[in-house]
Amino acid sequence: MAVTDEAIEKIKEMIVSGALRPGDRLPKESELAAELGLSRNSLREAVRALSLIRILDVRQGDGTYVTSLDPQLLLEAMSFVVDFHRDDTVLEFLAVRRILEPAATAMAAARIEDAELDALASQLDALGPDPSVEELVACDLEFHRGIVQSAGNSVLCSLLDSLSGPTTRARVWRGLTQEDAVARTLHEHRAILAALRDRDAEAARSWATVHIASVEQWLRSTL
Fold first, then answer.
1. What is the pLDDT of residues 202-212, one digit of tens each?
2. Do residues 197 and 153 lie in contact, with contact meaning Cβ atoms separated by under 8 Å?
C-alpha cells in the first residue's frame, strides 16, 4: 500500500505542477514507470485508484487520460462516500447544509435570471396545494438545485448536491409524520422565491435558513 501511495503522490505532483494537464494522455505504462522510478504494478494500482475518484480516465485500447478535473466530476467521489452515511449522522449533514445553502441562496439573489425564477414558480404551481410527500420531496430537491446552480459557483453546487441525498429520507419521513409539513414547505418555498424576485439577498438567506432548520428541528425532536 505504501508503494501505491507513493505512485499516487507522484502522479498527483505531475498534475499539480502542470506536467500533465486536463485532457492529456499519460505516457505508456513502461515509460511512465521508468520516469517515476516505480514498478509497473504499483503504477497500475495507482492509476486504478485515481480512476475511481475521477482524476484519471482509463480508455480500453486507447490509453489513460487526465480527466477534465471539473469540480462536479471530482465531487462525484464524495457523493459515493456520502451514500454510506449512517442514520445517526443525518443531523450533521443537515447542519452542513444549513451553513452552505443559505449562503448559496443569497448569492443567487443577485444572479438568477427572470426566466429561471419563472421556471421555479411553474414548478411550484405544478405541484398544486396538496401534493404527495414523494412529489413534494422530488420538487424540493429540484427547487434548491436550481437556485444553487444560479449562484454561479460550481464547487458549492456540487458540494450541496452531494449533501442532499442523505437528508432525503428525513424529509420524506417528516412529510409523512408531521401534520403541517407539506403546507409549511410550500410556504417556505414561496417565501424564498419571493425574496429572490425582490433581489433581497438577506431575506433569501433567512428563509433558506428557516427552511432547512425546520427539518433539522423536527428531526432532533424525534431522536
1. 999 999 999 98
2. no
